[in-house]
Give the backbone structure.
Amino acid sequence: NAGVIQTPRHKVTGKGQEATLWCEPISGHSAVFWYRQTIVQGLEFLTYFRNQAPIDDSGMPKERFSAQMPNQSHSTLKIQSTQPQDSAVYLCASSLGRGSQNTLYFGAGTRLSVL
Amino acid sequence: GEKVEQHESTLSVREGDSAVINCTYTDTASSYFPWYKQEAGKSLHFVIDIRSNVDRKQSQRLIVLLDKKAKRFSLHITATQPEDSAIYFCAASIGSSGNKLIFGIGTLLSVKP
């Protein structure tokens, strides 16, 4: 079991460019979460999917952020027109998502730097 | 919105002493309270959790206490070792499903030999 895989590990974009981050959850996990980690804000919830369906995107900045889960083996987080304040580590996590099985397993994260 | 507050941003203890990290939460529906550890340069990994049907749980040197009335929970690390040095995050489930977690800001624990 390779755990949650996130690619790329580091991404540098220029202001106004698009960034797409990828996540492969643990096989058999039905829930996938995206969080953003910064020194100032800590871990901020962005969105989550259950059985590929979007459940809660209340943490997503509405205009430029979008997330998809086209199949059970990967999810993407897309940021359009990136801004310097989007610089952060974006963490993907998965869980079994069944009953009381809430434990999140985190990927190593993608460090996004917007210049 | 709902919040989890982590009261100690940094904590320094001597090896062998105990360390205590305190958190409070706002959502009365919260029922699940996990703790995660993040070592330097690594991602978060789960260390221990407690559910709202109990008020104490222990796993080896880790003890979690939950006071539902005060909406407060804490992590106690006994007989600390240098390898316990890390950032510790508390979290609380939000909403009825219990799947979504809101995290505290993190506590940087340093265990000095």
